[in-house]
Design goal:
The chain is mainly β and 431 residues long. It has eight helices and 21 strands. It has a 21-stranded mixed β-sheet that branches. The radius of gyration is 39 Å and the shape is elongated. The termini are far apart.
């Protein structure tokens, strides 16, 4: 059988059983330069050229046609399995498939449809009105170019108006991931997602050596929309996050207190203070045993509450956000030193930018303000006093108020004697 860019060949025989039913015993082979040219379903599934080759044995078991000993190569992804399709009846398909690798976005497009542009309406899902259940195993389920779920497994259940990726499980960044995804083929599309991540490596998740530790998180999300951007911008939900054995390079937690103490006898210099702080931060990594915070997701933006930790008089606060539609992130780390000062010495380290290119900046305003106020409180407004001990500082003499001289009083003119003012006459009586 020849189709556009595709050739299908069969070899074997057709049989009829004792009950008169058709029982094929066939060997099937397929070769295609672009499977999309031959099958509409393939064209709806992926936007790019889809080369494919494969083989299978076709036989009958009960009311099902079985594609047994299935082996194929689909756009570089190799797979094996067994598929069952109802013969002459409207019923659910079934089977098992094992792939060495697969792209998560491509699998999701089977459930929600796809569009060439993020602002275009999603197409009719490939699996729409094609009920069945398929058990799948994927050696590497690619989430991005650098991150994949290893040894992924899930049950793909397709109903008349919904597709569910159920019992999802696998290894993620040296940890575990589990959950489920449900997509309703309605107008607009509706998505419901539950995910649990356990003991995932932060260094692997974020592809960096500057951040170490493990992440544990639980998320419940929902979204709706008829095109990709609308779905992403409507994501909402809640969850929790826990970071354990956290280490951040070039973020020494004692840097604020070190610079604050070192400048006790110096005239405040903002530029010098900032440079000293940055140099001090680079001395050692920040180490925190555990941080916990709630997560809130609204309008596609995930925000964490402030996770707090304290060691002695040093307090650490960490918060962050992910803007999913804009694919950007921000994290704020605050270091404060508790004490008797009206303004706490502190610093804020900010990471912000696209997911793969976060930029780090250090804000020393709180530390500069605390040092300046301390200098004022100690008489620091006289620069000559700054480097002297308290007892040696020059104290300006107190100016006493001059008392008036005696001669000044005597020279003042005397007041005249009081005048004798007669009483006011009363009005005369009219009687």
């Amino acid at each position: 059988l020849r189709l556009p860019e595709t050739e299908i060949a069969t070899k074997g025989e057709f049989r009829f059983g004792a009950d008169g039913r058709f029982e094929p015993v066939l060997a099937l082979t397929l070769k295609s330069k672009d499977l999309r040219k031959a099958f509409v379903m393939a064209d709806r599934a992926v936007p790019d050229v889809l080369p494919a080759s494969g083989s299978a044995s076709i036989l009958r078991e009960g009311n099902n046609l079985v594609f047994d000993k299935l082996a194929f190569d689909l756009a570089g992804s190799r797979g094996t399995g067994r598929l069952l399709f109802p013969a002459g009846e409207i019923s659910s398909f079934g089977g098992q498939l094992t792939l060495d690798r697969a792209n998560a976005a491509t699998l999701l497009s089977l459930a929600i449809g796809r569009a060439n542009e993020a602002t275009q309406e999603l197409s009719v899902p490939v699996l729409s009105n094609f009920p069945g259940m398929l058990r799948m195993e994927v050696g590497a389920l690619e989430l991005s170019e650098r991150l994949a779920v290893q040894k992924a497994a899930f049950d793909l259940r397709v109903g008349r108006y919904e597709t569910v990726f159920d019992n999802l499980r696998g290894d993620l960044a040296n940890g575990k991931i589990a959950g489920s995804l449900r997509f309703a083929d309605t107008y607009p599309r509706v998505a419901e997602i539950k995910l649990d991540v356990t003991d995932a490596s932060l260094a692997t998740l974020l592809s960096t050596k500057a951040l170490r530790g493990t992440l544990r998180s639980s998320l419940t999300l929902s979204a709706n929309g008829n095109y990709q951007d609308a779905l992403l911008a409507s994501i909402s939900g809640q969850g929790t996050i826990t970071l354990s054995a956290l280490e951040i390079d070039q973020t020494d937690a004692t840097s604020v207190s070190t610079v604050f103490a070192a400048t006790a006898k110096e005239t405040p210099d903002e530029k010098k203070i900032e440079q000293s702080l940055i140099a001090s931060l680079y001395r050692a990594p920040l180490k925190v045993s555990k941080l916990e915070a709630p997560l809130v997701i609204a309008n596609g933006i995930l925000r964490s509450g402030s996770a707090k930790a304290k060691a002695g008089n040093i307090e650490i606060l960490l918060s962050g956000s992910l803007n999913i539609p804009k694919r950007s992130a921000e994290a704020l780390l605050s270091i404060e030193v508790a004490g008797n000062s009206q303004v706490r010495p502190g610093a804020v380290i900010r990471w912000a930018g696209p997911f793969d290119a976060l930029e780090r900046k250090v804000d020393a305003k709180a530390l500069i303000t605390a040092i300046t106020l301390r200098a004022i409180e100690r008489g620091g407004q006289n620069p000559s006093n700054m480097n002297l001990p308290q007892e040696d500082r020059v104290v300006p003499p107190v100016q006493k108020k001059r008392a008036p001289a005696k001669s000044d009083i005597e020279s003042a003119p005397l007041l005249p004697p009081p005048a004798n003012i007669p009483p006011v006459p009363q009005p005369r009586s009219q009687n």
